[in-house]
Amino acid sequence: MTPTTDFVFSTNSEPHRIRTREILRKHPEVKQLIGKKNSATFWITLGTVALQIGVAWLLRGQAWWVAVLAAYCLGAFAAHTLFICIHEAAHNLVFRKPNANLWTAILGNLPSVFPTALSFRQFHLKHHAFQGVHELDADLPDQWEARLIGSYSIGKAFWLFMFPAFQGVRTLRVTELKIFDRWAIINSIAQIVFVAAVVYFMGWVAFLYLLASFWFSVGLHPLGARWIQEHYLVLDKDQETYSYYGPLNTINLNVGYHNEHHDFPSVPWNLLPQLKKMAPEYYDTLHYHTSFTKLFVQFLFDQEISLFSRIVRKERGKIPVSDQSKPDMELAGMAVLK
Predict the structure, then answer these.
(1) What's the rounded Cα separation, in Å, for the pair 94 and 116?
(2) CA distances from 322 to 121, 266, 294, 325, 326 (A)
């Protein structure tokens, strides 16, 4: 693989619909996993929120650098776990009632300072439905973003450090989404009240811990390699999505099972390893990652890998017009999310 100055364009449909159909045809027993709910995710969410508040309380009288260090070594992992809980709620995989999932996402969002849970839900479902379509998939870097960062370590380190900001700017191009609704307002009000309470009762150092925990959890941290792991062409220029099978799946709620998740987005995190075992001929033959730290270092220092190392498509994923409003695949057993 050599450095490029443009994305890898494909005229093929994204791979997950094809693999989903094949797996369902060959392994109909997979259907028993589809649509299951895992209410344990709520208790993990509640416990992790309590952990972050507790650590913030303990740090309230410490120097600012102690809070930043604690955020890098501990808080980032907790914040990342909460991000995955929000992700599960976005797919309605926690409770059967949709509103209960929305409240779970709002709860999990609290220690992350910024009100992103409900908007993430909408952008993420678009990513599933239109993977690689630039105007609909906010997971893809912008052209100007990739050119600005380039392929050198300093640029990629800056990109990882500022990843939350870059991700926020990307959402502006997805103009088909109207993300400001009553749930987004509730999300924002909850965040304002929570942040105000943290600053009032615990002080600015506690707030800094929570902010830094969120910032590191998706940025310049080995956990930030997750964004490279999922869809960047690191191991094979023709494989669009990669899974991670490593120890961090334990605390990251199997988020590394990314091919499995894209193929069956209505299977909860605790059943993804079982899904992989049911269809080994489809997943064991794919390239995968085993270390976020190794990938983190490789991305930073390998000049052959850049933000252009992504597959994009100009067509809307070759989705029939009648299906283009559906955020997830019904053929994978999902109810259309409202």
Answers:
(1) 18
(2) 22, 21, 43, 7, 9
CA–CA separation, 32 vs 267, rounded Å? 9
Each domain of the chain, given as residue ranges in start order, spans: 24-315
- 242-287 pLDDT, tens digit each: 999 999 999 999 999 999 999 999 999 999 999 999 999 999 999 9
Sign of the CA dihedral with 234 first, then 292, 130, and 157 last:
negative
- Which residues are registered as beta bridge partners of 313? 133
Confidence at 175, pLDDT banded by 50, 70, 90: confident
Residue 155 in 3-state DSSP? helix
| Angstrom distance (rounded) from CA 39 to CA 37 | 6
- Output the six-digit token pair for 254: 């199997």
What is the helix, strand, coil percentage profile of the chain, to 5? Answer: 60, 5, 35
| pLDDT tens column, 287-330 | 999 999 999 999 999 999 999 999 999 876 444 433 433 433 44
Among 249, 282, 254, residue whose Cα is nearest residue 270: 254
Measured distance CA(176)–CA(179) in Å, rounded? 9
